[in-house]
Amino acid sequence: MKFTLRIWRQKDPRAKGRFVDYELPDASSDMSLLEALDVLNERMTLRGEEPVAFDHDCREGICGSCGLMIDGVPHGPRRSTSTCQLHARSFRDGDVITVEPFRARAFPVVKDLIVDRSALDRIIQAGGFVSVGTGSAPEANAAAVPKQTAELAMDAAACIGCGACVAACPNASATLFLAAKVSHLGLLPQGQPERAERVLRMIAQMDREGFGACTNHGECEAACPKGIRLEFIARMNRDYLMSGLWSRPDTEAKGGFS
Ligand code: SF4
Ligand code: FES
To answer: Of the residues 87, 111, 135, which one is the last residue of a structural domain?
Structure first.
């Protein structure tokens, strides 16, 4: 397959960026977009040119590091597909594919296609943890959790922290990411001790990081490669409203959670 890759090049955070076209006349249809960038970079290196900087790690859709804006859509045109799992066959032969970094105030460009997404890490640090001893895996399995609740928690835990929801949102809000993390822990017994504090701290940190507010556009859900649903935002909002009413630390004993 033949493609033109129109790629955002930016030397460093302060430099002015621009799009540069690169021809790829011999791509395999089975290549992922990241592999196409690998091939391009190899050729550029051999020519003595500066290769394109981009983030990646697992290349299996599980680490969340590979987010790119492809033809104006976070992770590109295929639903529920991360950039590393997006193959050349998803495009038409001869296409011009525009590749740029995620755009958000809280995600400053580091170089070319790499953005600094450490703001999401700091939101996790603010409350995305449990302090109780959970024991080993067999002990965790001994804590009875209704199947429906466990499945819902697993759905929320599928969030890979890629930031596509932020890039897709007109307000650059991290609410879907936050809702996934708050819901995942809040649904399980191990997550109850910090449940009220968690949502307050994580939302406060999101605001400090410069993310926008959620105004229910739903673009985040459409862009999410892991199918995180908007209903988790409703669940988080309920936790946020209830957090002021829940007495701590014995909230669970009073049956305040559901
Ligand atoms: S909610 Fe979806 S889009 Fe947002 S960070 Fe998690 S996996 Fe990525
Ligand atoms: S490289 Fe890990 S999710 Fe794409």
So the answer is: 111
Closest Cα partner for 82 from 102, 108, 112, 62?
Answer: 62
Indicate if ligand 2 lies below 6 Å from the C-beta of 32. Answer: no
Asked whether residue 99 is domain-assigned, the answer is yes
**How far, in Å, is the centroid of ligand 1 from the Cα of 63?**
11
Last residue of a domain, one of 48, 83, 111: 111
Q: 134 and 221 in one domain? A: yes
Q: Which ligand is nearest to the CA of 226?
A: 1
Judged against a pLDDT cut of 90, whether residue 136 lies above it is answered with no
H-helix or E-strand spanning residue 200: helix 195-208
Pocket test for ligand 1, best of 226, 231, 232, 233 (most atoms within 8 A of CB): 226
What's the token pair of residue 208? 């400090």
Say which CATH number the domain at 226 has.
1.10.1060.10
pLDDT of 257 higher than 80: no
- Could you give the percent of the chain with pLDDT greater than 70? 95
Distance of CA 16 to the CA centre of its chain: 26
Query: Does ligand 2 lie within 6 Å of residue 57's CB atom?
Result: yes
Distance (Å) from CA 68 to ligand 2 centroid: 11
- Alpha carbon distance, N-terminus to C-terminus of the chain: 52
Expressed as residue numbers, the domain containing 32 is 3-111
**Mean pLDDT, to the nearest integer, of 93-118?**
98
